[in-house]
Write a structure and sequence with these properties.
Layout (H helix, E strand, L loop, with lengths): L1 H17 L1 H7 L3 H14 L5 E4 L2 H11 L17 H13 L3 H11 L1 E7 H12 L13 E3 L4 H6 L4 E7 L9 E7 L7 E7 L3 E7 L1
Parallel strand pairs: 1-2
Antiparallel strand pairs: 2-7, 3-5, 4-5, 6-7
Helix pairs in contact: 3-4, 5-6
Length: 207
Amino acid sequence: TAMFTLFLVYSTYDAFNKDVWTAAGRSDSGLMHDLRLATQELDSSEKGVILPLSEESGFAINAVSGKKVVFARRTHTSPFVDANKRAADAAVMLFGNNSELKKELMREYGVKYLYADQYGLQAMQYCYTSWENINGDGALYCLMTSKENTKYLTENGIEWKLVHSRLDPASPVAPRFDVAIVRPNEIFLNITPILSTGNLQLAWVRP
């Protein structure tokens, strides 16, 4: 039994050690290098929660920095977190037309930073320009929430539509659900850039 357990541990470590994402995490170039710069900036600045542009962007900055984010890849978040509510609130903070509610939400979540990386910006652009044709897996480029939040989105001037999509971008065979996706719009927030590289931007943020 002990030998079998040892073999399992070794096999797991070996697979992890050879994984392409493990190698990327150990590299000191490109996005990983810039994420470390962002982490250093966050460590030396006022504590606060990060508002990312997409689930994947939130997942990346949280994984590298350990800092709190409004939302991240939902398949990696706690089951006790209401990922759909957080996504809808993020949409209101980013694209909504109710300034007072945006301020209230930012205070509630403790938001101090806006984080944008290449993936988040490209995802927003794709979601906006391909809106009429987006369905299925294309929905993964957009902010998504549950159907129950569509009234909330409409009340705050946010365009949405229902699609049938998987929630996990890492698994092409993941279950699919009817979800509401959000069309990006101009971001009406006052921002003060504090870090800008070829791969990402980090800014102080105010509604």
